Amino acid sequence: MATTAELAERIAADYPFLAFLANDPEIGPLLREAVDPNVGFSTTAFQYKVAQTNWWRTKTQSAREWEILVNTDPAEARRRRSTFAANLRQAAGRLGIGLSNQDVTNITRDWIGSGIDVTGPEFTHRLIEYGRKKGSLGPGLYKTAGREIGELAESQWARGVSAKEQRDWAYWISMGQKSLEDWNAHLAAEAVHRFPHMAPQIKAGSTVADVVGPFVGLVAQELEEDPGYIWSKIKANDPAFRKLLGLRDPKSGQMRLPTESDAIRIARSRSTWWDTSNGRQMDAEAARGILQIMGVRR
User: pLDDT at residue 288 above 70?
Assistant: First the structure.
């Protein structure tokens, strides 16, 4: 009968990649039986028996391969850990996710054995989720995408963005699944339904800001304000300025774009218009007219 030392030597020679499991309560006995000339069984039978063990059934193939590498080629395992950690830091920096040295150590330890591709979407998804839970999302691709999503919606399409929309689209853009152009196309398609009276212009490539820009400019001129201020009032749902996005025609009942006369009327309905040069001039002219009617000369 072979001694324990002899069995260990045979295991190391015949099953070098599993020798580190010689003390495993399930695989250890299988290894010793496989190399014991008094017992022994075929390679196929051995593989079948190993596949029934807890070690095999509770680990993915990637996890098993990583454990084997760590125990059979420690130098290569260290090199791969170092490469994984470097790629992790680079990806985190690109996405704007702050990671401490301990974070990098923990993530490398927990993820490297899964066989995850550090250049793939699953890795990006898991890293963003890690940053969200840790509250360490800083300036980077993810936050930049989120900011650009909001700015585009507000500055060109006169609408806000929900937290869910911003989170989802920032994630998709960060992962390369969608682009800012896709977001713009989504907003355009939506605007056709929001503002059917602008549909022809939008379908031709204009944004809501392009369509109503001339009217915004006219109101801004009348009120002696910056057009950006007028647009901010539209975005803030100011009832008077929102009329620049469309008026309901009293005859047809359909929404239509304002005319220049409508825009001037909207501007002059604001009390602040009387503080403008045109407003003061008209006020003065009205006062003179009243005085003349009363027979007072000035």
Answer: no
Residue spans per domain, the chain: 4-58, 71-134, 141-194, 208-290
Distance CA 148, CA 144 (A): 6
Here the tokens at position 69 are 């590498």
**Sign of the CA dihedral 90, 92, 96, 102?**
negative
Distance CA 149, CA 162 (A): 11
The predicted-structure confidence for 94-103, as pLDDT tens digits, reads as follows 888 888 999 9
3-state helix, strand, coil in the chain (%, to 5): 70, 0, 25
pLDDT at 2: 66
pTM beyond 0.90: the answer is: no
Cβ-based neighbours of 71, under 8 Å, separated by 6 or more: 20
Residue 255 has pLDDT above 60, yes or no: yes
Q: 55 Cβ partners below 8 Å, 6+ apart? A: 21, 24, 26, 27, 64
8 Å CB contact between 11 and 32: yes
